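Q: My labmate handed me this sequence with no annotations at all. I'd like to see what the chain might look like in three dimensions before we decide whether it's worth expressing. Could you predict it?
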Amino acid sequence: MKEVKIESKLYVFESIEELPKDVNMLMQKAAEARGKAYAPYSKFHVGAALLLDNGEIITGNNQENASYPSGLCAERTAIYYAGSQYPNAKVLRMAITATSQNKQTTSPIPPCGACRQAIAEYEVKQKVPIEIYFMGEKGKVAKSDSLANLLPFVFDKSVL
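A: Here is what I predict for the chain of 160 residues:
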């Protein structure tokens, strides 16, 4: 038996104001999308914004349903829309922001496991890493240079 050590590298900005101008603008788009979320059950609103290599910005937000598994997260709403409307475009960057009506969210909130898997599919397909920035409603912003930092053992087509 041998031990395998896996490391992930993230960068943390103290606030949205520290972000480069173009990333700040993308996070603002994610915040606008977050404001349109439909989350009457969890009271947890999430917005995502994607920058594509063709210059398009795609946004999405979480959409809940009384039949809980039928809802969809913001990240998947955005990335699936990008894939359906711009099938040959690459996703360069993703910004995610979340807020709760139950408490203030001040620490970076990463994508859930299902969203990590969906993002992984696009990162593997396009053979280009996707930068992912994530935050709560305010406070620190985390940055990952690739989904691989958030999901090091990716399940992809190579295992099928």
